[in-house]
Amino acid sequence: MDTIVFSHTDQGEFFCTSPQRLPSQMVATIGVFDGVHGGHRYLIDQLKVEARRLALPAAVITFDVPPVSVVRPNHPFEKLNSNAERAYLLANAGVDLLILLPFDLHLASLTAEEFFDQIITKSLHVHTLLMGYDHHFGRPPKNGASRPDYTEIGKMHRVHVLPQAPLFDEEEGLPYSSSRIRKLLRADKLPLANRLLGYNYTFIGEVVDGLRIGRTLGFPTANIRLDDPHKLIPPLGVYAVWIYLDTQRYGGMLYIGNRPTIAEGLERTIEVNLFDFKGDLYNKSIRVELVAHTRGEARFESYEALARALQQDAEVTRKILATAL
């Protein structure tokens, strides 16, 4: 998958800043694609079918930052994926091109017609545009006016717009959505969130130095600094996880919490213990997949009690991973 990055001049003219050349035409879809969940991949499958039919590349158009961070700058937001994670997932979904647009106040100010004219047609030369059921672009209409008709706007610009129906979760009868998955993760419903994602919720980060107390308890841990400060962090506690280091996979347990047994008022930490691993992890990048939440945050009366709890955690985690994919 090629990634093509766009920028714009002070006059608002969009231009490509990547060395790759844009194709003369493409089949595209557009959205934030946070999570690249089952509903997103269903849309991408339809995109690839149409692209093969027309013998054109399949492209995903998305943004360098979440639109909410620009439109509502004082509103907190959380992401299921960093940009690197999203690109990895889109590449695995079989997308030919990833097109990153600079979402800023200029882009947010464009009407749907201006977005079509300046970006979809003049900049990207889109032949066919698949529209997800819940995606909208262009400045919101004023005074309660109806949303733009993208199909009609597409006809004016000679772009074939194909509205797509949502994919519903068969068990609950609700459409797949990133916001729903965020709510599930916050509500400690990791198994359902993982099922809707189609993969285990994942952290990617660099191993950094910590207090090094875990090794004195028989469970040396690697502190992880995430590669995106807006990454959604699920509830505190201990998790059974898979850890990927280079080409190797290890079982282990992840801790998210404030370490109340050690001291009061410590900042939240994310640290992982790798089973059956010997070596140096500092400054290395690792990927951690959350399989199950085994217990919540707890304060123990002594380091000895904490060590016993960690031993029990390890036994529970090994049993879970023995039956996990």
As a whole number of angstroms, the C-alpha radius of gyration is 23 Å
Number of helices: 9
Low-confidence stretches: none
Strand content: 25-35%
**Count the strands?**
13
Q: Determine the fraction of residues in helical runs and give it as a percent range.
A: 25-40%
Helix and strand composition category:
alpha/beta
What average pLDDT do the residues reach?
Answer: 89
- What is the CA–CA distance across the termini? 27 Å
Sequence of secondary-structure elements: EEEHEHHEHHEHEHHEEEEEEH
Give a short account of the largest sheet: 7 strands, mixed
Side by side, the strands of the main sheet go 2-1-5-4-3-6-7
The shape is: elongated
Topology:
Elements: E1 2-8, E2 14-16, E3 26-30, H1 38-54, E4 58-63, H2 67-71, H3 83-92, E5 97-101, H4 105-109, H5 112-121, E6 126-131, H6 150-156, E7 160-163, H7 178-186, H8 190-197, E8 202-208, E9 222-226, E10 237-245, E11 248-257, E12 269-274, E13 285-295, H9 303-322
Parallel strand pairs: 1-5, 3-4, 3-6, 4-5, 6-7
Antiparallel strand pairs: 1-2, 8-9, 8-13, 9-12, 10-11, 10-13, 11-12
Helix pairs in contact: 7-8
